[in-house]
Amino acid sequence: MSPRAFAEHPRPAAPLEGDAERQPLIDPPAGTRVSEADYWAQYYEHENGYEWNNGVLEVKPVSDALTTWIYQWLLGLFRLYLDSHHNARLTCLEFGFRLSLPNKVAIRKPDLGLVLDSNPQPLADLDRSYQGTFDLCVEALSDSSPAEIQRDTEQKHDEYQAAGVPEYYIIHHDPRWQLFYRRNAFGLYEPIPREAGLIRSAILPGFRFRLEDLSRQPSPEAMLEDPVYAPFVLPNWQRDRQARAQAEQAHQQAEQALQQAEQRATTAERLADQERREKAHERAEKERERAEKEALLVELARLRGQLR
Questions:
Q1: Which regions span the lipid bilayer (predicted)?
Q2: 26: closest CA among 45, 46, 11?
């Protein structure tokens, strides 16, 4: 693969003579030319969400609600994955990085950026921009104009490819604009194979999702029962649930064993009672027979006495 582009973001330059009185434009339109130093100092954190493309301000377009919901679901899926794997960090929306490209310099703010823990440039807690090159960028496509579609599908595609971003995802509510790229050994983007309707990340082991789920957006509860997501969605909760199920099963088995023991005890007591009754009856019969025999002997003795 070609070398990844890394560059420290430049600090705003000291004002030149005659520039001290120059004030930044409050709300400059897209296409306004500004220096990179002025961009970092005055427009990087501007509420309009400006990006900077080789000296020109560009305004990030707004996606429609359906595409925004897809973005939110995918972001949630990344978070669920990282909750169990802890091998990367995420940035969202207004967090930018500098691309030092062969033919220009650009500053882009992907809708979602991911930095692996193995990236040579860590993402620090107090960073306000990323000093390295993201390992994965996601853009939520706006289709308000052909130029906006072209920016994400062609311009940023080429920029991220040249900068060395290993994976680039474009999401949209229309499946035609759901595009997923991975850099190959030659440093060029190629579509990620859609095996059995799944997109699998090469940089995040085990991370995957169904393309149709971008629209369906199943809940975490539903994904817990889905073999595609179960391996990385809330594994601690799944282990706790399994432990609870095993404890409940053991409790039920103990209750069942207790009931069986009680039934055996009841049966044994019933049999013992029956045996005692039978023995009492036997003793009573023997006592009756003895009494009858004694009475018979008395009667015989009386009869003998009369005969004498």
A1: none
A2: 46
